[in-house]
Amino acid sequence: xxxxxxxxxxxxxxxxxxxxxxxxxxxxxxxxxxxxxxxxxxxxxxxxxxxxxxxxxxxxxxxxxxxxxxxxxxxxxxxxxxxxxxxxxxxxxxxxxxxxxxxxxxxxxxxxxxxxxxxxxxxxxxxxxxxxxxxxxxxxxxxxxxxxxxxxxxxxxxxxxxxxxxxxxxxxxxxxxxxxxxxxxxxxxxxxxxxxxxxxxxxxxxxxxxxxxxxxxxxxxxxxxxxxxxxxxxxxxxxxxxxxxxxxxxxxxxxxx
Length: 257
Ligand SMILES: Cc1cc2nc3c(=O)[nH]c(=O)nc-3n(C[C@H](O)[C@H](O)[C@H](O)COP(=O)(O)O)c2cc1C
Description:
This protein is α+β, with helices and mostly antiparallel strands. It has 2 domains: about 20-200, NADH Oxidase (3-Layer(aba) Sandwich), CATH 3.40.109; about 205-255, no CATH class. Helix content is about 40%, strand content about 10%. The chain has 8 helices and 6 strands. A 4-stranded antiparallel β-sheet has the order 1-2-4-3, with helices on both faces. A two-stranded parallel sheet has the order 5-6. The protein is globular and about 55 Å long. The model is unreliable at about 240-255 (pLDDT under 50). Flavin mononucleotide binds next to strand 3.
């Protein structure tokens, strides 16, 4: 085995092992471990090396509780009202007990991934004047930091749950107010982390087959799933996620499983 092969082996082990864990113990994370996490995020590549990422660490119990309340109020008001409008093919709306928003408010460490929108002035002019391109570069840069952080957490034996509810305008506004964040800061994501409280680890993961998602050269007419196949697959993927499934780790409607 070459050195590169073994790097890949380690890498694959890391990415396959990273999961969303929605049960986290309240035990504190040592300061040194927190620093290791943050250091990993610093290395994430960003568009044009503009480095718009800001990381906000929240360990204070009162602040964590205030964040939880903001999210819970939003769930109780807006979220379920909108969920009730789901189309039939999507199946039943999410229920309160399976909402997957902020499932472990007692987790000791909240890390907000923030973006400084002022840094967009550094983009080349073609991107600076294209809202879509600028937004895409900005979001992807923040996503990279988010994923580095998540992988680093896993490598350090920590469990983590992303909490995307912070992107919702109402939650975003209230969180910014709570944490005294200036207007130019965008709250991209919240990663809630600490030590896992999940017994037996997460269930098997439903994954698409590689041969369904990889394409070579010019696409054939039947290379992409039909609308019906796609919806069937999405429904299976989503229900697996919400119901904490235990079934097989693979899915492919073209193979009738
Ligand atoms: C961009 C992004 C946002 C996510 N937001 C949430 C969230 O708000 N709440 C949650 O419980 N999980 C969230 N997740 C976790 C996904 O549901 C999870 O990654 C997916 O079901 C695959 O499971 P795995 O992470 O265990 O591999 C998010 C994941 C990503 C990549």
